[in-house]
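Entry 14. Structure prediction run on the chain below.
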Amino acid sequence: MAAKIFSPVDILSIIDLEIALIKRYKNVKDYAKNLSLIYFSLPDSKEYDEIFEKFLRQTDVVIRENEHYIVVLHGTNEKGAIELLSGIQEFLNAEPIDLVVAYPRDGKDAKELTTKLQDEIKDNYGVLLEMLSNQEKFEAFESMI
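Output returned:
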């Protein structure tokens, strides 16, 4: 499988880690300076492995809550994320909705990005995701620094 699947409880920590890496390496010429989040819904009747193999990279992070998927796209700007999401929606024969949030345009940290994403999902699909309403990130290692 190309992308890595993580637990919904990890979403804030993963996004904040990606943002920290972007900030740390902002002056490195070839280092990615973009981060985008996309959302799509995948009915249980569809085989998701094919989507992950066909569209996602090893550096992409998939977070699943029931039939709802959020993908964290490292090094992908909004335009690239929209193209990727359009390909997934076309593959699923789903109505194309550009449901993408991008760092830093839509938020400066994980909480702002996930809040913006939840607002977009609610406005377009009428769905509230538990993984986006849980705004507490895992802080186990922060006290060791």
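The first strand starts at residue 4 and ends at 6.
Filed with the rest of this week's runs.
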